[in-house]
Amino acid sequence: MIEIIGVKFQKAGRTEYFSPGNEILYIDEFVVIEQEKRGVELARVVIANKMVDENDVVLPLKPIKRKATPEDLMKYEQNMIDADAALALCKKHVKNHQLDMRLVNAVYTLDKGKVIFNFTADDRIDFRELVKSLAYDLKTRIELRQIGVRDEAKILGGIGPCGRSLCCATYLGDFEPVSIKMAKDQNLSLNPTKISGACGRLMCCLKYENDYYESTRKMLPDIGKIITTPEGPGKVVGLNILDVTMQVKVEGMEQIMDYHIDEVTV
After folding, report:
1. Count of CB atoms within 10 A of residue 55's CB?
2. Angle (nearest 5°) at CA 57 between 55 and 58
3. What is the chain's mean pLDDT, rounded?
4. pLDDT (tens digit, 9 = 90+) per residue, 74-133?
């Protein structure tokens, strides 16, 4: 067994695991973590000290740097303000260099050793001159990350077609693959405007009920199949997967009958 804590670097980011060292930490406390690639960052505890099997985590676990102090939290708040100013400066340089890229946000590491600019673009961008201009003005390391439109929606947030805040921006840690087959299996309109989210990709929520639709569909007969009903044999002419029912044209009857799967013999 090994002791771990789970943290998130973003509100809707994925949970990552670290060693708490000698610290006793509670949910919603903040810790400072230093990583080789990402630098020094502030993270929120989402899983308090917990013993787990060593096979359940990827070893070796990196230790946290320390529990966040009030000074760390004040520095984090100031960094957010400074990041907005850095983003505005970057937009000016992007315009001056005539680069076809859309800036999403800017983030400073806690120690201000690096500022990260996330952007989207339709093609690869040669931003070497942009990095030089930013480094000269900001006097720190510059990192530009090209992200996808789903990541952009996750960072910026917004309101989905359902009227609620975007799932990706509120609680989804990782994106799961979504296919057009899921929409077909749920008998949804294949109109792109009806099944696409704010990012322009297929809505993540198509995945939520997909397992139920797949398992229930296996229980129901195919349309056109002859089955036995309490009123005699009939042909299946429609299905309702949510209710696990079917519409049947019974021989000798004009009316279309509705039957639950338990009422018929397939």
Report:
1. 8
2. 100
3. 93
4. 999 999 999 999 999 999 999 999 999 999 999 999 999 999 999 999 999 999 999 999
Spans of the chain, pLDDT less than 70: none
- In angstroms, the CA 205 to CA 166 distance is 10
pLDDT of residue 38: 84
**What is the DSSP track for the chain?**
-EEEEEEESSTTS--EEEB-TT----TT-EEEEEETTTEEEEEEEEEEEEEE-GGGSPSSPPBP-EEPPHHHHHHHHHHHHHHHHHHHHHHHHHHHTT---EEEEEEE-TTSSEEEEEEE-SS----HHHHHHHHHHH-SEEEEEE--HHHHHHHH--B-TTSSB-HHHHT--SPPP--HHHHHHTT----HHHHB-TTSSBPGGGGTTHHHHHHHHHHSPPTT-EEEETTEEEEEEEEETTTTEEEEEETT-SSEEEEEGGGSB-
Q: Structure tokens of 148?
A: 């996808």
